[in-house]
Write a structure and sequence with these properties.
heterodimer; A: mainly beta; seven-stranded mixed sheet; four-stranded antiparallel sheet; 49% strand; B: mainly beta; 54% strand; globular
Chain lengths: 116, 113
């Protein structure tokens, strides 16, 4: 089954404790993105990757890091989480730039993060 | 001002009603327009996709784009309880950076049986 998986699905942590949210896709997609979803603000892109070892900032990259060492995996790293990073996070992948020529972006199930 | 504005709702309608969901945008470079549906506790999924101005129909769903007014709409005919979800508009500028999509904030829809 074609899918994007994220782990963990739920996470409660404390300010400053480094954490990693994993993302994996089994569709051999080149493009992967991380979004955060907050009430009233919709989905905002944090980082995206166009291929292995190629990443770039989205709209809200501050406080986040990513890496793309393998095509299927795109982990999101919070080196020193703060309460304003409490949010719902989604990983997504697509074979081309999402929205170009009808490319579909597939989303993972989401990771709900609470930073105390 | 946000690039994409969407009425957050919530919107509640009886089963069988026609639903109209709308977004306005400010970036005239947007060329691709999408509607995503997000069920509770799930990730968004692509529902409809259109390029530039015009209409596109898919079953009970019709997407309209009016670039002159910078306004897009999604119509749902004969709405069903299974249509209850949050609907997100999204759009992209193919001439810009490799950033992907700009999303609206979403409209929460409930269809009452």
């Amino acid at each position: 089954e074609a899918q994007v998986t994220q782990n963990p699905r739920y996470l409660i942590t404390v300010t400053g404790k480094k954490l990693t949210v994993t993302c994996s896709q089994n569709m051999n997609h080149e493009y992967m993105s991380w979004y955060r979803q907050d009430p009233g603000l919709g989905l905002r892109q944090i980082y995206y990757s166009m291929n292995v070892e190629v990443t770039d900032k989205g709209d809200v990259p501050e406080g986040y890091k990513v890496s793309r060492k393998e095509k299927r995996n795109f982990p999101l790293i919070l080196e020193s989480p703060s309460p304003n990073q409490t949010s719902l996070y989604f990983c997504a992948s697509s074979s081309g730039l999402a929205g170009w020529g009808g490319e579909t972006q597939y989303f993972g199930p989401g990771t709900r993060l609470l930073v105390l | 001002q946000k690039e994409v504005e969407q009425d957050p709702g919530p919107l509640s309608v009886p089963e069988g009603a026609i639903v109209s969901l709308n977004c306005t945008y400010s970036n005239s470079a947007f060329q691709y327009f999408m509607w995503y549906r997000q069920y509770s506790r799930k990730g968004p999924e692509l529902l409809m996709y259109t390029y530039s101005s015009g209409n596109k129909e898919d079953g009970r769903f019709t997407a309209q784009v009016d670039k002159s007014s910078k306004y897009i709409s999604l119509f749902i005919r004969d709405s069903q309880p299974s249509d209850s979800a949050t609907y997100l508009c999204a759009m992209s500028d193919p001439s810009g950076s490799a950033r992907q999509l700009t999303f609206g904030s979403g409209t929460q829809l409930t269809v009452l049986p």
